[in-house]
Amino acid sequence: MDKKKLNRKSYFCNDEVANYIKTRSEEIGVSESAFINICIDSYMSQRIAINTMSNLEDIINKLELLNQTNDIDK
To answer: In this model, does residue 13 exceed pLDDT 70?
Structure first.
């Protein structure tokens, strides 16, 4: 591996996280940067969901409502 790339990775995360990112991105079949973007997007979506609903019960109720709506559409 290129030493410059190795230094860049260790700057952003520790070896354990770097290995996890490498392994998971290979399993999924995407690049490491794409995997990180997926994680960031997922995190942001969760934060938005949590910030717009007051608690876990509200989130569960909304998901159940969506599920019922999808069942009606079928």
So the answer is: no
Query: What tokens were used for 12?
Result: 């952003």
Quote the DSSP letter at residue 29. Answer: T
Phi-psi bin for 29: left (phi > 0), alpha (psi -120 to 50), beta? left
SS3 of residue 55 by DSSP: coil
Which of the 8 DSSP states describes residue 2?
A: -
The candidate with the shortest Cα–Cα distance to 21, out of 39, 6, 3, 5, is 39
Where helices occur in 1-74 by DSSP H, the ranges are 3-12, 15-28, 32-52, 56-73
pLDDT at 12 over 70: no
Question: Hey, CA dihedral for 58, 62, 67, 71, is it positive or negative?
Answer: positive
Confidence of residue 16 (pLDDT cuts 50, 70, 90): confident
